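Input.
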Amino acid sequence: MKPPFIWDRYSDQPYPIKDKIYKKKMRQRHLFDTIPLLLTNIIMFPLSILLMPFFRGKKIDEDNFYGMGVDLDKGDIQVELIEELGIQHILIRMPLWEMHRIEEYLAFVQKFKNKTILLNILQDREHIEDTALLQKDITTIFKKFSPHVKEYQIGNAINRTKWGFFSMKEYLVWYQNIQTIRNQQFSTLKLIGSSVIDFEYHYTIRTLFNAFPVHYDHFSSLLYVDRRGSPNNTQMGIFNTKNKINMLYSMVRLSNQTSNSIYITEVNWPLANTAPHAPTSEKECVSEEAYAQYMLEYLKCAKESGKINRVYWHQLIASGYGLVDNREGKIRKTVAFNTFKALNQC
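Output.
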């Protein structure tokens, strides 16, 4: 990932863009995409809320509901920990700026034998701006991973400029290019999007209702509530986690650009006293005990809704927000690790 995009190895995400001149220039370049964004939301945002009560959940496959994020650089101990948790579904990030490490990522995937892998392809500006490079590297990824991986999340946190996109149109063009490669050469693979983070459904609506010929085989959301504390807390008056899920499902049901299958591909809470590893400020951080309780409440809400097919917890080893603390080279299972293990195996 090249400047002005710099990776924070502590919280496993890009740092905010510090080059204000660059950021302003890029936002101005994509200013006109706010027009379809606003026009679509004027209709679809209130309509999605209005129709929420009419879209009922369905019976989900509870044996395949839980997933877990793992990371190449967190080591092979994750294979053993995943077995202990009894997890079948794994999410692994593949950053496009690390194509030089693709064989390492492939070997890492192969270590999780008899597991279903979701490969999350992380974007960067180079692959957003250079279509030929994107086509070459996506073709390489599909060729190498397709014997082992059938599902690919295309992009991540696409509504955060620090992750590389400056408009939803830019993402839709990018997704369409990847979808074309899939359709022409790898028709059995499943593509997942649009991976908007947080309760910013105006961006989600733009990716679900548009003139681009894109289709999501599963629809993904990074539905965080970490700045709201308990999953039962509300935002905008009525939107606790339950109603955020209800609205998301309503939008998906109204769109013809996605299946009705929803994956929540990233969620956690930041842990207190773990700076600089926590992904937020200390103000939003919670104790390990509260983390475990909020996790239980969140997963229970998502499962009982009948509207979420799978939740991937983010992630297994992460000192500031995961189930295992690996500071000082040691492995320490948090309260939430044992809570998650009991929940998955009950």
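The chain has a mean pLDDT of 96.
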